[in-house]
Amino acid sequence: MSSPPNPTPAPSPPTPQSPYDTASFWSHTSFSYVHDLLVLGYSRPLLKSDLPSLPSHDSSTKLSSKLQSTWDHQRSISSTPSLTKAIYSAHKFEFWLAGVWTILEHICMLLQPLLLSLFLNFLTSTTSPSSTGYIYAFLLFLTSFLQAIFHHQTYYITMRAGWNLRISLTILTHSKLLKLNLTESSQYAGVAMNLVSNDVFRFDNFCPAIWHYFTGPADGVAILFLLTKELNFPPAFLGIIIVLFDVFLKLYLGKKIGSVRSTTSKLTDARVTRTGELLNGIETVKSYNWDGVFKGILRGLREREHESIFRSQFMKGINFSMVLATPAVASLAMFGLYNAMYEEPLTIERVLGCIALINVLRTSIGKEMSRATENGPECYIAVKRFERFLGLDETEEKSKDDDAGDDDDESSSTTTISFSSSSSLLEIDNASFTWPKCTDNLSSKIVKKPKGNVIMYSTRDVDSTEMAALNTIPTTLQDITLSLKKKELLIVLGPVGSGKSSLLNSILGEMSTLSGSVTLPSGTKLGYAPQTPYIRPGTLKENLLMGSSSSVSSAFYEKVISDCQLRRDLDILQDGDSTLLGERGVNLSGGQKSRLGLARAIAAQPDLLLLDDPLAAVDPHVRSRLFETIRAQECGVILVTHHSIYANKADKVLVLNGEGSVECYGPPSACEGFFEKETTKGKGLGFSVFASSDDSANDSDKVVAPPPPPASTPADAVVNNIIKKETSVTGKVTMKTYKEYYRAGGPYALEAVLLLMTLGQVGIVLSDYTLLDWVESGNDSLLTVFGVLVLCTVLLSFLRATIFFLSALRASSKLHTNMLDAVLKSPMAWFHANPSGRILNRFSADQGQIDEQLSVVLFDVLQTLFLSLAAVVVVVVSLPFMLIVVPFLVWYLLRIRRFVIASTRELKRMENVTRSPFFETITGSAQGLSTIRAFNLQESQSIFLISQIDINSKAWYWWLLGNRYIGFRLDMITVVLVGGAAFLGVVLRELAFFDPALVGLALIYVISLSGNLQYMVRQSTLVETFMTSVERVQAYGKLEPEIDGGEESVDLDEKWPKSGKLDVDNVTMRYGPASAPAVLNNVTFTAAHASKVGVCGRTGAGKSSLVNCIFRLHRYEEGSIKIDGVDITKVPLSRLRNSVTLIPQIPVLFKGDVRFNVDPKGEYGRDEIERALEVVNLEIGLEDEVGSDGDNLSVGQRQLLSLARAALRRTRLIVLDEPTANTDKSTDDAVRTMMERKGGGIGDFGDSTVVTIAHRIESLVESDVVVVMGEGKVLETGEGNVLKAKEGGVFAGMLKESKRNS
């Protein structure tokens, strides 16, 4: 056996220097240092290992540390810290550098119309020497060249800054999540997920446009001055007024977009949170046939989100339409007013100079500033959302200098733990605790409401007048006093909801101390095993050693594995302790996860070991050995358990009552009267949690357990490494993907948009030619024609934008609906192979890109495509000699696009795929927060996240460089065209073979290409990269569904099944292909009407697989399962799952009120639901709120709600998977009564066939049928009492072993 790895990652080898850091000046200017990667990507699909290192500037650790420092400074100097100021402080160098480049670019943009006017004056002059023309032509070429350089440097810096902020805020959000109290972390986990999957991308959109808030108005003032020189003040001022109207309209729309975006974010939060809940509870949802309920909820949320997105998209459409409309209307107004006020005719050079200036305004204000006004408010909303989240109260770090009495606001802080040099390991002195309340930062409050023996936290809006009442929150634990020394074992007992788990959390510092104190010796190291162990994606070994130091020896590691009864599990796992564990340990049984959590706590070699019922989900013989391991620990141990038979072996016992107070505390002898009654074995069907083996003392000692079965082909071994690596399509996005996306937008929507864009662009070109004809002829009727063309162009602009965004959003929502429907219909094997973080990535990040980014970029591409085509046509018509150059330039454009997009497409796919793991890590951090903090793994978890972000960052950064590379080279094409057209104009003037008006118009259109052409091609590559999100969502929309009854469906009686008779005949099942070992092998047994069936067997015997087959959660390949004589494969899934009830071992609850959790379909009346709650002994109101995953209830209370669901359904066949493992004896008695009671009422299971999966085999003795399983086979079956008396029998041997171990 190899020695265990160091849980702290070993120092990685020195990172190779990034090509960025070694590039030359010209390579930086032209982005040539990415060329080698593009060559490789063109030759074959890129791999993650192909990506060069990131620049030192872009280290995730460095970026997040810098922003964290500036944010901490803001929090230290102000009660209302500003994240905006923190961001500026962290990135002010990039901000001002980008400002310099932007200003230089806009100076070049303003110089070009001036040079064009001078050049046109030269062309119309007969006396100016040709040398003057060549100088002007060279200056036009030079300004175009410099503008291209400045433009790309600006965009590189600003896009990198947006990406840097995305990285920093993701890491800060995760770090904040690790510091929240458990109440808030649960409440805001969905918000945090939406922040890092959606809101962070607002910086990508806004940062490149931030300086356009300033350059737009500055350009407007400069152009007003220049227009006044050409047209006098009134016409120039009117043109500027129209442009200013456009500016103020954009600002107004920007503000409205920001407001709508705020609403959209909340709706997206709700949808993503609910989707996450659905994915986490998918097995319960399918078992209860609640697919339709959650589909309806999510569709309703999506419809509201759709409406909100459309409002913002419609306003963006108005902004986009103004790009063409504003310059045209401004030209009409200026020239019309000039014609009316002045008799002096306009000249060609003056008119073309004015048009060139208006085109600058179209770019500066119409396009660039509109982006700022659209994205600025959205980014502002995102910043405020981050600001509120990062401003949430944090748990206090345990410090040696802390004092229990120093907390001024105890109700909102966590447990204050003081440290001392006392000989006691732990002292709690008359302390009362409560769960921390939520702060008011995100407009909701956790309100604690006592109801009977249940303490509920509910979420609702709270105004300021109610805040005082929240400071008197009822206690969860009252007046607790205890002490513990090294090597002592304290067992904590008590009914469901008494606060046993809360006691451990108070020691961990997760609860608020209302009075008293908690004292630990200085430097005390804690070990913690919660009821639901935290499993991080990685190997079993990595999870086991997560909380251990680097000094763990191989011998100690092996001892922990042996002591925690994991050796056999490792032997049967295909890859042993190198087995990759899925999300929440989906490929482990409940017992395996429990033992792994215990092993982790022991391997940490703590001073104080806190164990929350690790004995609940394991077999009796394993439970006994685990207790021996716990008892033998050299440290102090606090064990929470329902198994009071072990209380006599403890040094101390603490018994809590239903009010969270101490019923008894002291040595076992002092508390004997309080827990002896718990050991009384239940009669009848015996579902007692506390069943002992004492009454079996008279059983023959000759009954011995048979030897354990060989482990060569374990029943469940084939499911060990079921987590599939996320893959993506390679090569270009297919036309089929585009076609499906376009058609999803509605019939002929694309054709309509293309037609309107063609007509609009034709109108623009015709209006320009009409204007020149008017200037040359002086015919005022042509000015009227010009006006009509302008107005038509404006109307077409609005119409095409509206139709486009409406159809794009319709397509997006249809993709979401298809994906949701397909995911809900997918078999459970698919969910086990795909972690929920991966699936959620498609419902959040991918869907968000399709909703709000793809549509904008695609419209940009279409609009600039038509502008570019028009420019080329005008140039060729005006200067036919340019036909010599244009084909070559078009060939180069297509060639370089094909060359670059081969890499950028794969890089974007890679970025999408590598984003899922860190989403999974963030989700896992929220779920395992108490464990992470107990082992002080916050830093380790952050490093783990950063390592995942770095992989994702490489893909994004080199994708950015690829875009800059192609953009710069395409702008060089337009630079060549500008220079070529200008020099050609001079040559044609010398030959007296030209029309100055056409040359001038051609130059105006060519100059407009400078930026538009590269922008169009670059955006087209971005469309293809965003289409990978469409590809990914479409892939989920085509998942293979579960096999329903289909054509073989049978007509069933309305009351089927009437008896609940179950026949399992030679069922064989495997999780993998036909070559994989069978997890069920010819399983056969029969359960008559109203019989009680017990299924038992060791871990990996196939018990859970049998349950999956009964509910058709997994497909079995041979044999049959019949209910009332009907083959269940011929019964529609919805009917089958409505007719059979599953009570799982791990209950799944959803955010909402109690009524929704018990009856999501709304099929039952209030009285019926209240009766179901009464039957299971749960005192709770129907309107009381249940937190996400039931986090505001104890595990026992969650199980009671799960039992209430079953009581309400009253089906004839019920399957129980150890449903009372985490409940007390009174609840256990109530469940046993339900099993015996007949009458057909709520909770009357006496007339139903009940199949029970049990770890406590003593509870199965009274069963009508016992099925003993091993290695997927039925080892023995028969009546419980008969098998008990069978000498040498498997069941009898297991009973004997269990009694001996107890």
UniProtKB/TrEMBL annotation:
Molecular function GO terms recorded: ABC-type transporter activity; ATP binding; ATP hydrolysis activity
Highest rank taxon of the organism: Eukaryota
Mode of membrane association: Multi-pass membrane protein
Positions of transmembrane segments: 95-120, 132-150, 210-227, 233-253, 320-341, 748-766, 786-809, 865-894, 966-988, 997-1017
Matches recorded under Pfam families: ABC_membrane (PF00664), ABC_tran (PF00005)
Entry-linked SUPFAM superfamilies: ABC transporter transmembrane region, P-loop containing nucleoside triphosphate hydrolases
Annotated localization: Membrane
Region of interest (Disordered), ranges: 395-417
Keywords, comma-separated and alphabetical: ATP-binding, Membrane, Nucleotide-binding, Repeat, Transmembrane, Transmembrane helix, Transport
Main location class: membrane
GO cellular component, one term: membrane
Domain ABC transporter: residue ranges: 459-684, 1062-1296
ABC transmembrane type-1 domain residues: 96-366, 752-1025
InterPro entries: AAA+_ATPase, ABC1_TM_dom, ABC1_TM_sf, ABC_transporter-like_ATP-bd, ABC_transporter-like_CS, ABC_transporter_C-like, ABCC_6TM_D1, ABCC_6TM_D2
Protein family according to the UniProt entry: Belongs to the ABC transporter superfamily. ABCC family. Conjugate transporter (TC 3.A.1.208) subfamily.
The protein, known as: P-loop containing nucleoside triphosphate hydrolase protein
Biological source species: Triparma laevis f. longispina
